[in-house]
Amino acid sequence: MQEIEPVNFASPPSTLSAEPRALDRDRDRAAARDTTRAAGVQIDRLTVRFGERAVLDDLSLTLERGELLTVLGRSGCGKTTLLRFIAGFVEADYVTGRLTVAGRDLTDAPPHQRNLGLLFQSYALFPHLSVFDNVAFGLRARRVKRGDIARRVADALKLVQLGDAGHLMPAQLSGGMQQRVALARALVIEPDVLLLDEPLSALDANLRASVRSELKSLHERLPDLTIVCVTHDQDDALVLSDRTLLMRDGRIAQLGTPQALYENPADGFVARYLGAANLLAPSLVFPIGDARHAEREKLACLRPEQLKIDALGSSPLHGTISAVDWYGATLSVAVELDAMPGVPALVSMQHGAGRTPIRGDRVSLRYEVDDVVLIRP
Ligand SMILES: Nc1ncnc2c1ncn2[C@@H]1O[C@H](COP(=O)(O)OP(=O)(O)OP(=O)(O)O)[C@@H](O)[C@H]1O
């Protein structure tokens, strides 16, 4: 069933004159905008314990308003629990720590008072409702006026490029279009934060790429909307994120731009998680005389595209090609290093750039010493 939940429902209409309340509300909103410009979501010292186990362990995090954060990590590391905490779905008994969204302390607020849009893995829409009615659902629950509903639904559908689809039924839409309707439904309530849990995982590879671009352009068109997106997919993180949070066992392994995580991983776990990494003994890649040559506590990290295959020569890295895999535009070449048997170095090269390597070739690997990053194991 549908798991997209606009969680902010209306308070009953006031019997008092609507105008002063509306003015108050507008003034409050304006004030909130001013004072919270820099703070979209703030999490302070969050620990979630189920029994003995801390699923989230003393986690602190501040997102700027309008930032798109992707949350990555292995299965079971606590990604969904983090999202559920923000949404208000983790029972208070299990939680210590505080949550502030758009300047409001929401730690103890029930889910329906948090003004969040949720879009979870399954995007199934209500099959018996038209696209319009699916999107209008949350607004009707909040008792928004009819005319306003029509306008806001039209705006939300336009935002996801489905301005003409309001009259269609879900069964008449492709998977990608259904996912966009689900997004419109999350956005129509004008949430402060959009929480996405694996929003692309039910889509096939092509559709995934296209909905991913939609999401990116949507983020550009809604600069004030803070988005937290849990994903397993590195490409989602690389394409979408302002910043990526890589989690490990309920803690932050590294938080930064995807580029920072890729180019300057904090440790071997991060290096291996985001893209392929060659992790080598520093003595193998730094020349004698370079202080880093003698470094024993660290690993030297070189990405596959930073290695070049060369004729056997004077490079300290040499060995035998053990596999050549073709990925369309690129070739991935595994080289069993003489100095490190059993853990082949990976080289990525453009297909068609020079002679295609052949399994069994004896080769050297060239690299720039300046490209090598020293990291914790
Ligand atoms: N209500 C709960 N009671 C007990 N344990 C729970 C509860 N919710 C989650 N867990 C446990 O907490 C751990 C983290 O779960 P969570 O769903 O946050 O992981 P995840 O990183 O999102 O994993 P996945 O990528 O597989 O969705 C898991 O071991 C899970 O079994």
By CATH, the superfamily of the largest domain comes out as P-loop containing nucleotide triphosphate hydrolases
Query: What is the mean pLDDT?
Result: 87
Tell me about the largest β-sheet. 7 strands, mixed
- The percent of residues in helical segments reads 25-40%
Annotation, overall tally of beta strands = 19
Q: What number of structural domains do the residues give?
A: 2
Shape from CA axes? Answer: globular
Distance N terminus to C terminus? 44 Å
What percent strand? 25-35%
Q: At the third CATH level, what is the topology name of the largest domain?
A: Rossmann fold
Q: Please write the CATH class name of the largest domain.
A: Alpha Beta
Short description:
Residues 1-31 are annotated as: Disordered. The chain has helices at residues 18-35, 79-87, 131-141, 146-159, 175-187, 205-221, 234-240, 258-263, 268-273, 282-285, and strands at 5-6, 41-50, 53-63, 68-73, 95-101, 104-105, 116-119, 193-197, 226-230, 243-248, 251-256, 278-280, 299-302, 308-311, 318-327, 330-337, 345-350, 362-366, 373-375.
Write the layout of secondary structure elements.
Blueprint: E1 5-6, H1 18-35, E2 41-50, E3 53-63, E4 68-73, H2 79-87, E5 95-101, E6 104-105, E7 116-119, H3 131-141, H4 146-159, H5 175-187, E8 193-197, H6 205-221, E9 226-230, H7 234-240, E10 243-248, E11 251-256, H8 258-263, H9 268-273, E12 278-280, H10 282-285, E13 299-302, E14 308-311, E15 318-327, E16 330-337, E17 345-350, E18 362-366, E19 373-375
Parallel strand pairs: 4-9, 4-10, 7-8, 8-9
Antiparallel strand pairs: 1-7, 2-3, 2-5, 5-6, 10-11, 12-13, 13-19, 14-18, 15-16, 15-18, 16-17
Helix pairs in contact: 3-4, 3-5, 4-5, 5-6
Biased composition (Basic and acidic residues): 21-31
Keywords: ATP-binding, Cell inner membrane, Cell membrane, Membrane, Nucleotide-binding, Translocase, Transport
InterPro entries: AAA+_ATPase, ABC_SmlMolc_Importer, ABC_transporter-like_ATP-bd, ABC_transporter-like_CS, P-loop_NTPase, Transp-assoc_OB_typ2
